[in-house]
Amino acid sequence: MFSEKQMKIMAFPHTSYDALICDGAVRSGKTSVMSLSFFRWAMLSFTGQAFAFCGKSVGAVERNIVTPLLAVKWVRTRFSVKYNRGDHVLIARDGNRENRFYLFGGKDESSYTLIQGITLAGVLLDEVALMPRSFVEQALARCSVSGAKMWFNCNPENPLHWFRQEWILKAQERNALHLHFLMGDNPGLDDATRQRYRNMYSGVFYQRYILGQWVMSEGLIYDMFDLTENVYKQAPTGALYSSTRYIACDYGTTNPCVFLDIYDDGEVIRVDREYRWDSRKERRQKTDQEYADDFMEFMGKDWCTVLVDPSAASFIVALRQRGAYVREADNDVSDGIRRTGTLFARRRLLVNEANCMGLIDELGTYMWDDKAAQRGEEKPVKQQDHGPDALRYFVNYLPDWRFE
Ligand SMILES: Nc1ncnc2c1ncn2[C@@H]1O[C@H](COP(=O)(O)OP(=O)(O)OP(=O)(O)O)[C@@H](O)[C@H]1O
Ligand SMILES: [Mg+2]
After folding, report:
1. For 15, 83, 92, 307, which has the most beta carbons within 10 A of its beta carbon?
2. Residue 401: its pLDDT value, please?
3. Which residue has its alpha carbon closest to ligand 1 atom 11?
4. 191 and 250: one domain?
């Protein structure tokens, strides 16, 4: 049933520790068992209390915690459990005992204000290393009920990440139990699945997500991008036609300006063409109006959603004046890189090798900024990053479940 490591999660409520930290590899059975142990502890030890289930977004908490929890037979038969989607609250009853579990998303702005007003008997922070530190601290500060416990889990990031510095390395002084997980600690994974996950990552991502190590990012960012597996010469007949089309734009006046023509069939994403104007190379800068004209010509008659660098305010206005449907892109760099890397590794993201030579070149020289990494910041070197930036804007527009 449970592995030895997972048994320790189940036993945690019966220890004198105030906090539990589970870090390590992906798919290693952290979230599922932690949710169950948390719920069991809450329902058997308290009544009339509020608890928090926190994740990156409320949607992620629904998918990773609530749905799996409601699928557990013991939970459904032993308790009466109702999840209210509108209010993001799960209410569980056992006879006349009742507790509430509120869902919060660390990156949802509304969550930040909502959690400030609540008194909690416990908080579960799923994928805590991906949440803003201020949100996590706010959530922890709300745990004022006597007997409250804090439960954390995450995959490794940069070794200087605040969560490692403040919690993992200080586990003893914070009276926290620290458990480190590998895929072998999840008895539910068969060899084929384990192998599939191993093949999905390379480089820094392999060390972090498979070996479970907190290592610095260095070198090539997309070392999983493969010049045979991630490119195509011609899309299969009808593949582009039956896809949803997007154009992603990274705007620049002195720097190059790039548009990517992207087709998503729901499984495979194809970057089919690129537009590129490098004013230094061409020795001429274009105005927003000229760029917008070029854009309309690039888009042609088949209009689509346009994702633009959010800082390119004047270009966005010029496109909107021409009637284009423009969305300001989400410029979260680390999310975008993690997600793009996952799609490349799964071979779900392909690039037309003849039409997108600029993008392919840039993907091959897109490097981590080693100096920033030494300070605990993860970001790419700011050079020849225009194609990869535009690609991130598109990838950040996809819903979370495309990466799970
Ligand atoms: N003891 C078990 N027996 C059977 N299946 C299990 C067991 N533990 C976990 N699983 C299943 O394995 C899968 C991965 O588990 P889980 O989501 O808990 O991993 P995780 O460590 O949180 O992964 P990630 O780091 O990717 O979020 C889930 O589908 C879960 O239901
Ligand atoms: Mg998890």
Report:
1. 307
2. 82
3. 188
4. no
Domain with 367 in it: what CATH number? 3.30.420.280
Q: Which tokens sit at 145?
A: 């009920």
27 located within any domain: yes
Q: Which helix (H) or strand (E) holds 42?
A: helix 31-45
CATH number at 160 reads: 3.40.50.300
Are both 202 and 239 inside the same structural domain?
no
For the entire predicted model, the pTM comes to 0.86
Ligand nearest, relative to CA of residue 28: 1
Residue 358: strand pairing partners: none
* Overall number of domains in the chain: 2
- Nearby residues for ligand 2 (ion, Cβ within 5 Å): 31
- Give 319 Cα–ligand 1 centroid separation in angstroms: 45
pLDDT at 334: 87
Query: Which residues form the domain of 109?
Result: 4-209
Q: Looking at the structure, do residues 252 and 399 belong to the same domain, yes or no?
A: yes
Looking at 140, 175, 209, the residue that finishes a domain is 209
Same domain, 172 and 46: yes
Structural tokens at position 29:
């059975």
Which one of 27, 65, 201 would you pick to mutate in the ligand 1 pocket, going by the greatest count of ligand atoms within 8 A of its CB?
27
Q: Mind giving me the DSSP string for 122-179?
A: EEEEETGGGS-HHHHHHHHHTB-STT-EEEEEE----TT-HHIIIIITTTTTTTEEEE
| Average pLDDT per 10 consecutive residues for the chain, totaling 404 residues | 97 98 97 98 98 95 97 96 96 97 89 88 97 94 97 97 97 98 97 89 89 94 94 95 97 96 97 97 96 98 97 97 97 91 94 98 95 90 95 95 82
Indicate whether 214 belongs to any domain.
Answer: no
Residue 298 has which token pair? 């690039």
